[in-house]
Design goal:
Helix content: under 10%
CATH architecture: Roll
Distance between the termini: 15 Å
Order of helices and strands: EHEEEEEE
Strand content: over 45%
Structural class: mainly beta
Shape: globular
CATH topology: SH3 type barrels
Number of domains: 1
Number of helices: 1
Radius of gyration: 13 Å
């Protein structure tokens, strides 16, 4: 379920992707970014280092486009491939029954729901 909630303004500061992702997870706020030339809106669940050694985000795409047009399940996103990353004012209720806080796709977890 998606609810509306306005997080405090960043005052025009540009934040590092790690800060934006961590804050979005903490606030249960949706994230928006371009990835492989598609605009994505995702509900972030887990941020860390993937088993391939890349900083990655486990998130559910809720809007936007993709090559597969598949929405509604957890995907792993490589942070270095994200462009124009921003936290939205919309929040979400973390209710994915398939989410595993001990994500096996991550060898190190920075933060999670």
């Amino acid at each position: 379920m998606i609810a509306r909630k306005r997080p405090p303004s960043t005052g025009g500061r540009v934040s590092a992707p790690s800060d934006i992702i961590s804050e979005a997870i903490r606030r249960h706020a949706l994230l928006q970014f371009h990835y492989d030339d598609h605009l994505r809106v995702v509900a972030p669940y887990c941020y860390g280092v993937s088993t391939r050694g890349a900083d990655s985000l486990r998130a559910i795409q809720v809007r936007g486009s993709s090559l597969s047009n598949a929405l509604g399940f957890g995907k792993l996103w490589t942070v270095s491939k994200m462009r124009d990353l921003r936290m939205l004012e919309e929040t979400f209720t973390p209710d994915d029954p398939n989410y595993n806080p001990e994500d096996k796709g991550m060898k190190k977890i920075y933060c999670r729901i």
